[in-house]
Design a protein that fits this description.
Two copies of one chain form a homodimer. In chain A, α10 crosses α12. The first copy, chain A, is α/β, with parallel strands linked by helices and 458 residues long. In chain A, 41% of the residues lie in helices and 16% in strands.
Chain lengths: 458, 458
């Protein structure tokens, strides 16, 4: 066999998400005055049922039936043993991957977009706004809105809008309206365009536009959605790891090593949090979040209070950060180009429960190409970072002769990112190494903010 | 549930293909002198083991273990009941689809590319050539060559090469070399370029280049491959229908109506041939091949002897045809823009065992959009033609109140064809209606060739 696959039956799909906030403590988000924000202050931006989920410390949270119904389109997702990759590497390691590329939008993102749209619908919301960089989150939200009959407006960073025409067409197929950001539709957008009519845009600007569009709708029936970073997003993604645990049991194995790429943290959290619980209770597992070397939030950033967005509109979050005005080099992994990291993932890193590492984009594409040539599937550039680490671990196992069991998350496929592969084959991908001075500059902005407390969960 | 899915276990995958030539007779291919060609005359183009398969009349042919291994990457493919689509249509019909979009190249094509590459490898061949229009076949061959370690050279029609950059990148990820056709690498290509340096190319020219590149390799280690039309291609695709039969049994249902889009005939044959066998033995099934109205081979063409390629290099095949120099209008379904139809499929049509029908491209995209908005998956433009017919049948069932069971083949996904969806939403898709005079012109060329005999299999 080139692969061995365990598919769960539909009735084996987990009925609850795992909430890691039952088992770890995180520093609370702070408002502009430096004191913890109240749930009520977020009400114009998010529906109250999701805000409650954001602050919940219940360990298990029921997945609503209507969410399970939509999940049934692609879940349970397969767990696959990559036999052909093991052979090509000549490793005694067993390599498994959870295949999240099988969803209609092609990534793990709909695990949370479907849930978020559901809760908004239940709360009476008619329209959702969001920003998107590479386009995976925007596509996932458009898909989820088409399932529940909500309107969907996506502000897509202009440079991506122009470079990736297929992404906006994908959102359009699902009825989503995608505009290039900055747009003329918001005060934030108009202000930027006035200064610089040819700006390529940025995620920070797009967030500002999406939030403004939500809170300024006078009907009160519009809200904003975010595809990563927040606690409830990590929560929804845990279905990945919960399924993977069941499937690993059916293979009769348990992972020694778990790997996920990490941008805002959501696919990494989704696969690993249920296993982090085991690690807290005695299991020996090496857990690696893999970042791009060009945007090394966990590996070279500081654990600080910082804003989630460039403009500084969001509350201060306790997280690893490169500084909210850090502009990552233009690596071809839009989903990993984020200055911060989910507070929950950051907390685990600060406690040493996970072991951050990084890969350059050339390493990543080399690994992804090897994966495609052995297993057929063309991975997303983001997922290639995880694969690079998996291959390092598999080669280490070959050298030591250890039969390691390695599990990683294939967060998405690369079919709408094939242009970046073309650049890789043309030797046009630059490998960026950050100067220390860049990081030192970033540190200055942290001095203005409070310091997170040192917390220890276990 | 939005969907209900039956996945087979890996050990339930069929171990044999079904060869319809055991149950129907077709007129033999003829050489330039009007007499049946010998298998040996094809030896410079195809390996002898595949030529033997092309003429075999054994009903069941074993699938080699090494082919099953590669199939395991995506097979058995899911059979899905489209509950959400039934609800949206308000139909009492049960709608099932076989999801062939889950293969790495994204279509049914690797069912035969994997088999063809395997047989070529066993025969000692080191390199394969082919042509591709829209790119699905080229991608499938590159994928299969990467699995067996053969070189792969693809001549891609220039206009598609320029319009669909992601397709050539996809082939490149799997190590395939894709050049725009006409190229400077063959006599055929150079001759065309000399006359018209800016020609958009055509499938006919690309076939000529790929055949020339194969037969002119002096090492004798290069052969040509074809992705549709031929008997052995239809044979390899029957795994679709054989799996679907097992899965329909698990659902406890049997189809009253079966639908597949039809260009050269391979995905249609793959799903339907095992059910055609049942129909020959008493089952009542309506079986619809669906063509684009712009290229209505079965619905408006003639059952004649004609060449498979534009230039007239191939043997004469007994098939429905619009004439080998018919140039289909530029509909956005590259896989359906073919003047002929597989001789086996043509024979079934001539005997009334299948009921050809057609859809316009606007009907097709409308149907595909409804499918995407209910079930998430964005179908290939080709598959949209099948969906258009399925929706017609489901609405008919609603009107008559009959609980019809409808099964169709989702031959591929549309992620690399999203540009055509964008044109659909911009109301830029033209609906082509062929003048009768066009068809009458085509008939003239048939007068020069022998007439096929009227054969009756049952």
């Amino acid at each position: 066999m080139q692969v061995e696959t365990v598919n769960l039956n539909p009735d084996e799909m987990p009925r609850q998400w795992y909430n890691i906030l039952a088992d770890i403590k995180i520093n609370p988000p702070l408002g502009p005055d430096g004191t913890p924000i109240t749930p009520e202050s977020l009400a114009p931006v998010f529906p109250m049922n999701l805000i409650e989920q954001e602050v919940s410390t219940e360990r298990w949270i029921d997945i609503p039936e209507d969410v399970l119904k939509v999940y049934s389109i692609w879940r349970p997702s397969p767990l696959v043993r990559a036999v052909a990759l093991e052979k090509a590497l000549g490793t005694p390691a067993h390599i498994y991957f959870k295949n999240e590329s099988v969803s209609p939008p092609g990534s793990h993102k709909p695990n949370t977009s479907v849930a978020q749209v559901y809760y908004n619908k239940v709360f009476g919301i008619k329209k959702l706004t969001t920003e998107t960089g590479a386009g995976q989150w925007g596509a996932a939200l458009a898909f989820a809105c088409s399932q529940f009959g909500l309107e969907c407006k996506i502000y897509m960073v202009r440079i991506s809008y122009d470079q990736k025409p297929y992404r906006k067409a994908q959102m359009q197929v699902w009825g989503g309206v995608c505009v290039a950001s900055p747009s003329n539709e918001t005060n934030a957008g108009r202000a930027i365009l006035e200064k610089d009519p040819t700006t390529p845009g940025s995620l920070g600007i797009a967030i500002s536009e999406a939030v403004e569009a939500a809170v300024s709708d006078r009907t009160g029936k519009t809200r904003y959605t975010l595809g990563s970073v927040l606690n409830h997003v990590m929560l929804h993604q845990t279905i990945i790891g919960l399924e993977a645990k069941l499937q690993m049991e059916k293979f009769g194995e348990y992972p020694d090593v778990i790997v996920g790429c990490a941008g805002g943290g959501s696919n990494f959290a989704g696969l690993t949090f249920p296993f982090v619980y085991d690690k807290m209770h005695g299991k020996q597992i090496d857990i690696y979040p893999v970042e791009p070397a060009a945007c090394p939030t966990l590996t070279r950033g500081a654990f600080v209070y910082d804003h989630g967005d460039t403009a500084g509109y969001t509350p201060l979050l306790a997280m690893y950060s490169l500084g909210h005005d850090f502009v990552p080099p233009p690596v071809h992994s839009g989903g990993l180009r984020y200055h911060g990291m989910a507070p929950t993932v950051s907390q685990l890193a600060s406690e040493g429960l996970i072991t951050p590492t990084s890969a350059t984009q050339v390493e990543a594409f080399k690994a992804g190409t090897m994966f495609a040539r052995t297993l057929g599937i063309i991975p997303a550039p983001e997922s290639n970072h995880a694969i690079a680490q998996v291959i390092k671990e598999a080669i280490k196992a070959k050298e030591t002769g250890e039969k390691k069991v390695i599990l990683f998350n294939l967060s998405g496929h690369g079919l709408l990112d094939l242009g970046s592969y073309e650049k890789y084959f043309a030797n046009e991908l630059q490998d960026y190494v950050l100067e220390d001075s860049v990081l030192k500059d970033a540190e200055k902005i942290f001095e203005a903010f409070p310091k997170p407390k040192i917390l220890k969960s276990i």
